[in-house]
Structures are given as structure tokens and as C-alpha cells.
Amino acid sequence: MSKSSIIYNYNALLDRAFRQLPEKRTYRERFEVPKAEVLVIGRKIVIQNFMEICNVLNRDPKHLLKYLLRELGAPGYLDGRMAVIHGEHRKRTIDAVIERYVKNYVLCPVCGEPDTVLIKEKRMFYLQCQACGAKSSVRMFK
Q: Which of 45, 108, 131, 132 could make a disulfide contact with 85, Cβ separation 3.0–4.6 Å?
């Protein structure tokens, strides 16, 4: 029998295709951003776990700090693994700003997964999703 004369059974092919699919995930890991561990020293706020937050978000600490400082309207700087922000700000406010950052610059707007990277092409920034492959433009701050 030649190759061109082989007749395939649809159900057999379908069963074979289903056997080759990867196992379906029955659980979904919840993406949880650590809450900021804030220490107040005079009129300065120190976020002690700043690098841990950046590692979980897979973002450059300078980018997150720049966003925080812009949103809070305060000066600040990185000090080792911590972020120091001048002024009096509530922990709740800092956590809310970080959550807004996650929504705008970490989570994929198509599938909602946090597996994204920020890429710059020419003068535009894009959020490239590693899970679904979507590429969405993001508005960058100055």
C-alpha cells in the first residue's frame, strides 16, 4: 500500500492528538505581590523589602522606584536593598501605588498573567507576555 492510499480514521487521529497534549493544570498559582515593609525614620519612609518586591515583579528596581516617587510626589533613592522616600506617606498609600504599578506595568492586559517583560522599541514601550505572546503598548511616565 502506498503512502498516498492510506486512509486515516478521524477518531483514532483525535485520540492520538489528545494523548500528545500536555497534562492540564488543575490548579492555578496565585500571583501575590508582597506588601511593603515600611519603617518610619523621622520624615523618611524606608521600604525594607523593596528588592524582594522587584524580584517578584521581575522589574528593574530603578523603574519601580521612579514610578513610586512620581506617584507620591516625593524625592527618594535606593539604599542597598531598600528604598528611602522623603516625606510622610502611609503604608496603605505605598501599597496602593505598587498595586497600580502591577496593574499597568506587570500584568498582561490580554490573559492577566504576570509573566511579562517591558521592552523598548524606538521610543515606545511594550509589555510582552511570555504566557500568551501578546504585545501591548504601555504609557511610560517621565
A: 45
What average pLDDT values come out for the chain (142 residues) when binned by 10 residues?
A: 64 85 59 90 94 93 94 94 94 94 91 88 88 86 66
Q: Which residues contact 98 (CB under 8 A, 6 or more apart)?
A: 33, 36, 53, 64, 68
- What pLDDT does residue 90 have? 92
Q: What is the per-residue burial (b if ≥16 Cβ within 10 Å, else e) of 9-38? A: eeeeeeeeeeeeeeeeeeeeeeeebeebeb
Return the pLDDT at 6. 64
Q: Are the CB atoms for 118 and 104 separated by under 8 Å?
A: no
Does the pTM of the predicted model rise above 0.90? no
Distances, alpha carbon 126 to alpha carbons 30, 54, 80, 137, 142, in Å: 24, 19, 29, 4, 16
Report domain extents, the chain.
32-106, 108-142
Instruction: For domain 32-106, give its CATH number from 3.40.30.10, 1.10.10.60, 3.30.30.170, 3.30.300.30.
Output: 3.30.30.170
